[in-house]
Amino acid sequence: MQQNRNGSYGVKPFSGQQKSSSQPIKPAVDIKALDITNFADSAEKVILEHKQGNDKISTTQLRGLFSLLTEVREIIRVRQEKLLDENLMSRVQYIKMRFVYAAGRGEKGVPAFMKQSALIEGLDSVKDSVKQFELVCKYMEALVAYHKFYIGGQ
């Protein structure tokens, strides 16, 4: 592996900042205040803020992340349990890891979106609660919908 001009061998770790801006990115919503009465409004707020940035997450990237959640969501619907078992809690942790990895790769718009949406913190709040996992799924689904409406194919 060859050394870069600045003496490093790889890319910089995820810093939560867009490359085009020196301002740190802050969550657009308080994920702890998210509930069944405000998840759609919160998602709209996130997407409207994300739309203002230079780099936007693509619909394909967003739907790819959403598909990770829907896989577990379907298992929960079939089983009809009130609490997540160890296997499902492990899957939620895996999804969180994939979200962190996507943000860390620094692909166009993904790091900013992850910070603004606070999805990673939302997955942390799930613990063993099916109800909380379903709320995170609905929030993510609303993010996809508002992204399609406001940003679409831009």
Features:
154 residues, 0% strand, globular, mainly alpha
Tell me about this structure.
This protein has 154 residues and is mostly helical. It has one domain (31-150). The chain has helices at 39-51, 59-79, 86-105, 110-117, 119-124, 130-150. The longest helix is centred in the middle third of the chain and has 21 residues, at 59-79. Mean pLDDT is 87; it is low at 8-21.
Quick structural gist:
The chain is mainly α. It has helices at residues 39-51, 59-79, 86-105, 110-117, 119-124, 130-150.
How much helical structure, as a percent, in the residues?
55-70%
One letter per element, helices H and strands E, the order comes to: HHHHHH
- Could you say which structural class the secondary elements and strand pairing correspond to? mainly alpha
Biggest beta sheet summary: none
Mean pLDDT: 87
Number of domains: 1
The number of distinct β-strands equals 0
Uncertain ranges: 8-21
Output the number of helix runs.
Answer: 6
Overall radius of gyration: 16 Å
Distance between the termini: 37 Å
Bulk shape: globular
**Beta-strand residue percentage:** under 5%
